[in-house]
């Protein structure tokens, strides 16, 4: 366990479930009973005690917690079902940092927990961090299995809602700030594209089903890069002609991986193969033009180029939004102008 883990001490896990779900949205959560000895638990960030103090085992469990070395660094929030002054006093005497009524909304408990454990962070910051970890785990597994074999599209789906929820609840700029911290170039890029697509789709008012479809396509669109040599993938600066030819194979390779894996929808397949096609026919791998490029592909292509422009590398700061949007606007004829304008509005107005 790391310091971010929150322990919920509960004598009724069924009753504590809404609280555990709310905590899980911001941090890893572990539920333990009043028989917990505390010596077998590693570091943790805080404890929320949802127990009835009138039971002797509950008191002795809190006493064992209070005597644990380093306990003072992890706050204890006690939820009391009796709101008498005596109950609050007893909880404080047993080491509670804060006492709250057990009848308050779980989100209120989470708010107090966040203020105590991560005073420099907001609930939204933590939600985004958590969602990125979930989406990131999906990306890591996807890229790893694609190196040598098929991918599991059902597992990919586990990464979709974390992206959509984080963009909806936390906003695009928070997502970008967190994702920029990751060094792996393909990992960072795919999460930048996914967050950008989710924000664009949200601003276009697309349905939840369409947002999920586009986010799935964004997560996997560069899966073919898992088979491109690292020397080319991670080369700082421009690729030469031979290297560029190898790099460009990632689109048909990605399409092959997904086709062979099965369970992939036609839009994701089309996006994976065609996200580098341009409306004027100058793109790759098939030199498609205008009507042959489906709308979702055009939309993904815009987000893909934007994400590549604003990526953060050890030698390169993210390009400012306005400069990246100017470059997209100058690609008139290659990208769909109306969609680029809508994209600019979406990015500039995104929280
Ligand atoms: Fe690509
Ligand atoms: Fe890409």
Automatic annotation (TrEMBL):
Domain HD-GYP, residue spans: 164-351
GO molecular function: phosphoric diester hydrolase activity
Pfam families: HD_5
InterPro entries to which the protein is assigned, alphabetical: HD/PDEase_dom, HD_GYP_dom, HDIG_dom
Protein name: HDIG domain-containing protein
